[in-house]
Amino acid sequence: MIEFIKGFVDDITPEHIVIDHHGLGYQIHAPNPYSYTKSRKEEVVVYTYQHVREDILALYGFPSREEKALFMKLLNVTGIGPKGALAILASGNPSQVIEAIENEDDTFLVKFPGVGKKTARQIILDLKGKLGDVAALYAPDLFNHEEIEQTETANHALNEAIEALKVLGYAEREIKKITPSLQQENLSTDQYVKKALQKLLK
């Protein structure tokens, strides 16, 4: 994994920039390539994400680790790929995106290219309460750090409970049906398992 590339901007196109790193040119897809126009004579640092697929090897780059982290969080949402996540970051201020997710503002999210009502709800479902580490730079007042710790603990307990249910023989599709309702709770692993079994046995 290439964490970042430091070099000079050699070329700018509507979709990507080219960074000259000691004579080697890296093509990097960026949310707003032309934001690098003023940096053409300066050394820049671009934080990168390497996307690998059978027919694709591509680099995506961002001006900060936080924006890269938000991009990677968006990739975890069902139905959003690298191009979709990049379009969201290109079209919206990261702080606005984070606030829309936390405030469940799907009306704002559907303004982004390729994001319909269903995808907007999926973004909120998958990411609400999980962006505290990303929001430090963009929306520092949006998160209560004590609540973040509690959420992270609950997420860990829920993941352990899901693994326990799999061991008990429940299929992933059955578990996925009840997971959204469990995510609304803040329980211990044992409590999650009991609650899940009650729902599964109905």
Short description:
With 202 residues, this protein is of the alpha+beta class. 49% of the residues lie in helices and 19% in strands.
Please, could you describe this protein's structure?
- The protein has three domains: 59 residues, OB fold (Dihydrolipoamide Acetyltransferase, E2P), CATH 2.40.50; 74 residues, 5' to 3' exonuclease, C-terminal subdomain (DNA polymerase, domain 1), CATH 1.10.150; 56 residues.
- The chain is 49% helix and 19% strand.
- The chain is built from nine helices and five strands; from the N terminus they run βββββααααααααα.
- The chain has a five-stranded mixed barrel with strand order 1-2-3-5-4.
- α1 crosses α2, α1 crosses α6 and α8 crosses α9.
- The N and C termini lie far apart (45 Å).
- The model has no long low-confidence stretch (mean pLDDT 85).
Write the layout of secondary structure elements.
Elements: E1 4-12, E2 16-21, E3 24-29, E4 43-53, E5 56-62, H1 65-75, H2 82-91, H3 94-102, H4 106-109, H5 117-127, H6 132-138, H7 145-167, H8 172-182, H9 189-200
Helix pairs in contact: 1-2, 1-6, 7-9, 8-9
Protein name: Holliday junction branch migration complex subunit RuvA
Subcellular location: Cytoplasm
Region (Domain III): 155-202
